[in-house]
Amino acid sequence: MSTSQGIRTHTCGELRASDAGATVRLSGWVASHRDLGALVFLDLRDRYGITQVSFDESTPEELLAAAQKLKTESVVHVEGTVRVRPEANKDRPTGEVEVLATALEVLGPAKTPPFEIDAERISDELRLTYRYLDLRRPRPAAAMHMRHRVLLALRNRLDAQGFLEIETPVLTKATPEGARDYLVPSRVHPGKVFALPQSPQIFKQILMVSGMDKYFQIVKCFRDEDLRADRQPEFTQLDMEMSFVDEGMVQAVIDDAVSGATEAVHPGKCPPTPFPRMTWADAMERYGSDKPDLRFGVELADVSEVVAGCGFGVFEKAVAAGGKVRVLAAPGGASLSRKEIDGLEALAKEQGAKGLAWAKVAAHVSGEVVLSGGISKFLEAPVVKALLDTTGAGDGDCLFFGADTFHTSAAALSAVRLALGRKLDLVDRERFEFVWITDFPMFDQDEETGELTPAHHPFCMPAEEYPGQLVEDPAKTVARSYDLVLNGYELGSGSVRIHDAAMQRRVFEAIGLPEQEIEDRFGFVIHAFEYGAPPHAGFAVGLDRLVMLLAGEDSIREVIAFPKTAQAACLMTGAPTTVPEEQLLEAGVRPVATGDDAGEVAS
Q: Is 0.85 surpassed by the pTM of this model?
């Protein structure tokens, strides 16, 4: 027979009992192959579904022989007649029918795959090396489908509100934005480099100066930093900016866009908008984190005054040094074994804590609720009562204490809280809990040097409590910035931007940039502000992370078509790779010999 590749009358997920008797043509991959001698059955798969194809005693001998030789994952074209199956497969939308084949053509023969496509457990290394096979599997394929629906919903929501989708450059100027830049040597300008953008921050602000008013794009960004499960060297974000707005207007737009995307893939699961708001200070006080997971209600309580004179040296020293003693009450935590508690203490130490004090809550034979185990022997009855009143803990719970500086105790107990949420099954994994975190510190301050760095980026508008605070006491300045958090993950950040050239210079000076460096690196931005810049604000949503959470995955690699490994390498293509020395020299790059690794270069 003769066919053209890709020609088909139906997809493999389309046929139903109402199509019985129809002559059809299908194309797809052989998902399974069952040879019973005089009978051969194929499950034919494409992105739309699976249809069973049969060859029986009525099949010509030559056609039956060809069917018997088929290998799984080969691409084939089939012609035949739809008929109702004697016994339906109720787990499959096409399960009521099969196609009795009258013609077969192998369009793309396949070697034996390195793993079974329907296998449940495959190593990440093997999956990423053969990503084109991995994407044929139901779960990765479903993630790609979901990603498309999320991005489409976001685009539609923003388009409906009058936003323009505008592309910004990929080859741009290196600017400090919190991570190392990926650099691209210029052949035309020897000795000079482009940088791949960490974000389109400067360009979107310049678009506001240009009068574009409402901008967005779904854009690739690049950061040369150490990777985690929710980070990649190249990632995708929804970037947006608006003129003549305040924080609330930006947040309302994002509420609408993100809730629309959530509803597109999980109807009825998105909480109502507007999403709740919480200040940074409140989040740190209650949860020890600026990205709290609100799917369970365990909160931290400051008990520094309660335990200041309790006689337990660790607590008293922490309070005397100006630190904090905070506690969280784990519902049902008394069931934890000593080994499990030791594991929580190790987790706290990873966050810089010296240890993790604890005590279990139990009902005494007298009916009184008391503490047992851990540090209970150091706490007198009045202190115990105050702790129980403060936390609301009861029989069967467990108290965990952090005694250190504000930030260390927060980090330690936040990590313990999240671990307890998983370990004690406190987290409702079917819920999506969004929250806005607002009023961040303008700067992070190095505890040893006192050096200031932008908590978000240097283009955030400061919210000065009094005129001149940015110059006189910058470490205490609050930024008009805001993050959107979902289920304990930061989805993205935004802020009201600086649109005044003088204010922008003062922020650069606050982080220690000399005048010449300001001019060299950011002069074009400041000069743009001198030609009439409107008040503006914006936001960026990490789309890989959003889709990861909506898909119920634990890593953004699962929702990116061709992700990198934790070492920033592509196992499928072998990138990064070496290139011929003459190509490097042409780009103005001098190779550096480092043993067997010829991949390092110097400019």
A: yes
